[in-house]
Amino acid sequence: MPYKLVVAKDEDIVYSALLDGNRRLIELGINEEDSNDLIGKIYIGKVVNVIKGMNAAFINIGRSKNAYMSLDNSSDIFYTKSNASNKLSNGDEIMVQIIKEEHGSKGCVVSPNISLTGRYVVLTKGKNFIGLSGKIKGENERKRLKDILEKYVTESYGFIIRTNAYKIQEELIENEVEELVTRYNSIIDTAKYRTCYTEIYKGINSVLKFVRDMYDIDIVEYIFDDKELYQEVRSYFEKTNPELMDKIRLYKDKNLSLMNLYGLNDKIRKALCERVWLKSGGCIVIQPTEALVSIDVNTAKFTGKKNLEETIFKTNIEAAKEIAHQIRLRNLSGIIVVDFIDMKNKEHNQQLLRELSSYVKKDRNKVFVVGMTGLGLVEMTRKKTNKPLYQQLANK
């Protein structure tokens, strides 16, 4: 199915919306104008507490909450050592990168092994090997991509080849790798002369990151209503994906906003509702909590035309597809527990799990369907990359 990526500005908020051929909202990015995500930022931080029992340290990076760092991550980048030991100690100054945002009372999570992400590859410090996206199939293509990157690996860093790199010409990949290496060396050199708590790398524009990371999707058009963002994306794609240049256009109609043209406000409002109605008349109820996300499925208005078991099975299958869509749209993550309607037929239960697993494969984030518990609850996990939609919109 062809998709459109619509980037619309409403006052000082930028909405990046992925829409399918039926104008259904699939995924949404929300950013304040000129903002950058915390994730990816690099700081010079000071170690305030090393807790051996947790195998972790707390790092002050100049924010209100100290950052958490696992000691499983080793680093040789110290800018001030409090003692002669090679081990991390209180008072040490160290370069770290934010890998998870703050959540509730907890500070962000940082790592000394910085990574720089491009459209095709990720440069990773501390891992001097080449990794490959599991979505890249074919031994010949996997070997070709590894051969391209092999000569760039050093003792300090390696690379992860992203799904975007599939069948991309060698020159474009090499150009990006060389740019990432230059950026990495600049960060290392800059950090040597910066004081503690200094932010030494901001990352890229949040909107550009959203557009860049839309891989494995047939996007037929990229539409912008902001000229600066439009030009920034064109400039980026001119270097990385020149074949996409004809798909990028600037929306100029001043009588009808891009938000209204695609009904984004109404779509966003519905994405915050607890109850989602299915076409059959059944519904799902989505309730995020601190510990997990609870999703309940019921037949509601749907009575079916056949026996009760068939009615329940049909509702569950329809709900599975909608649940895969909703967790991506709402950016729900962590532990997700689904209470489907109980079915006596074991084959129906197995088929439901297979269908759910196939639906979540379309998600850009990693989703794992664990299985069904003895109580008939389906357990899932989804990798966290950002705040859920309801939290992003809480103060908007």
Structure described in brief:
With 396 residues, this protein is of the alpha+beta class.
Please describe what this structure looks like.
Keywords: Hydrolase, Magnesium, Metal-binding, RNA-binding. Helices cover 27% and strands 29% of the residues. The chain is of the alpha+beta class. Strands 4, 5, 6, 7, 8, 9 and 14 form a 7-stranded antiparallel beta sheet that branches. It has a 6-stranded mixed beta sheet with strand order 17-18-19-20-22-21, covered by helices on one side. The longest helix has 22 residues, at 170-191. The radius of gyration is 23 Å and the shape is globular.
List keywords for this structure.
396 residues, alpha+beta, seven-stranded antiparallel sheet, six-stranded mixed sheet, 22 strands, 29% strand, RNA binding, Ribonuclease E/G, S1_domain
How do the strands and helices of this protein lay out in sequence?
Layout: E1 3-10, E2 13-19, E3 25-32, E4 42-51, E5 56-60, E6 67-70, E7 78-80, E8 93-100, E9 109-111, E10 115-117, E11 121-125, E12 130-132, H1 139-150, E13 157-161, H2 170-191, E14 199-201, H3 206-212, E15 219-224, H4 227-240, E16 248-250, H5 258-261, H6 264-270, E17 275-277, E18 283-288, E19 293-298, H7 308-329, E20 334-339, H8 346-360, E21 367-372, E22 378-382, H9 389-392
Parallel strand pairs: 1-15, 12-13, 15-16, 19-20
Antiparallel strand pairs: 1-2, 2-3, 4-5, 4-8, 4-14, 5-6, 7-8, 8-9, 10-11, 11-13, 17-18, 18-19, 20-22, 21-22
Helix pairs in contact: 7-8
